[in-house]
Amino acid sequence: MANSFMAQWVYTDTVKDHFMNPRNIWKDDEDFTPDGVGEVGSLACGDQMRVGIKVSDGRIKDLRWLTYGCASAIASTSMMSEMAIGMTLEEAYHLTPQMITESLGGLPEHKFHCSVLGDKALRAAIDDYLEKNGIENTYKAKTARIVCECKGVTDTRIEELVKSGECLTFDSLSQKTGCSTVCGKCRNEIIALLEEYKHIYGK
Amino acid sequence: MKPIYMDNNATTQMADEVASLMRDNLTLYGNASSMHTLGRNASSGLEWARGMCASLIDAESEEIYFTSGASESNNTVFNIARELIDSHSKRNRIVTSTIEHPSIIEEVKYLKEKGYRVDEAPVDSSGMVIVSELEKLLGDDVLLVSIMTGNNETGTIQPVKKISTLAHACGALMHSDATQAIGKIPVSVKDLGLDYLSMSAHKFYGPKGVGALYVRKGAPIMPFVHGGHQEKGYRAGTYNNLGIIGMGEAARLAAQNLEREHDYLWSLRERLRKGLLASIPDIVINGNQEHCLPGTLNVSFPCAEGESILLYLDMEGIEVSTGSACATGSLEPSYVLLASGLDVELAHGSIRFSLGRYNTTEDVDTVIQKLPPIIERVRSMSTRKV
User: Which of A31, A51, A55, A153 is a Cys-bridge partner for A121, taking CB atoms 3.0 to 4.6 Å apart?
Assistant: First the structure.
């Protein structure tokens, strides 16, 4: 007896396509020597990502990735790889989770935060490339956004402190940078950023 | 393509006999509480079902209270305990475990927030409650001990009989959520020494939205849905007559098929376990392999994440569940697996196969054939390497 209801797939058709046929996977047997490598995420949260890039003439010439992650992590990293190849380093550095998610035709809210880490892994790979080659990282400063207006604390500053493990609580961040000590309206945003970076860097 | 459904601990396909009896009684619209003929007809169906549920668990009909399912039954037991504690009972503590169903885990969280005293006994690496640890938590201030009969994720059967003896020795009441065990292993309230037991029809080929609470004659009970004389005034609300009749038939079948069902599910499960061990390298079988619900097989695949495995299997028409956080929308993987000390990566990479009456050996063989390339594929794109 046939039932009357049929569901769509869990995610969009584009997600499904990238999940079923992921692009640019970093295969074991492939001779891919990256110019820069970045890794973000943590097993505790169930998503970990590694991105390797080849750079020539200031552009991403090629890219490979690996992920320990769910369907949307696989699909979003696959999509990111297609978008990033051919971009200038600066363009690639400014690739956002929103851009990846839009290209995928959308993701559920709870997936957006935990599984779209490809852009962060890509930025980490670009950072690695620049550092290895002694090139000044001018993108980092440009992407910084002031979160605490009273004390002029940027998201990049918070990211660095979390990444290094120096500040892993709101109180320690506040003590270190003075953020949220004046008007306090950035408190919730700082807490959200703190949680996000802790997730990204597996702290 | 007919899907291969191996998620029978989530819910089961209704038995043909159940569906057929429910179809026949779809128009039996009488209110079982009415005195006229139509009402009495409905009531006789309901009382027949009560008898079937009672005999399935070795209880008396008058000890069965119909509910909307095991979550309600579980909550009712904890509400009874809370009511007794509030009435200045000398006993004011509840003892349970870390691997209970969410309807108990969340209830415990809620009670603790309200200031009630609840202790959770730990489990060993096979997911079995450590009796000696639980014993340390007992005392003459304990009102209720609640330990599930068999775990939904690992399938591990709990030492309920031993625990009920200990609970009664210190004067406490004993409850067991037997939802996953009913119809798979013999469950006798007398043998297990239970004061309360929860069950749910849809886990043993009955309809959804209906279950029962067993309350031993003489054990405390009080109403939590007020407003009617149904269930002796303890659970108001017009009867879900059709659902209850369906549960009655499911209970009748469960009692009739119990031994055969157990042996059949175990043979499928063992075929699957051996097949996967032989065809996929580096896998970990979770749960207790000796004291185990016959249809449950929980496997961890190191370096592979569970939601991906689940969805690749789904593409092949194979339906299972996972302990991965990604499937729950939280960042935490299965608390049951973590409680048994499983590594967080293995919990994320866990798949639960729960077999049922309608699975065949061909189904099992198909899974043994389709899963290895999926695991290989997920591992080949993983940052983690075996």
Answer: A51
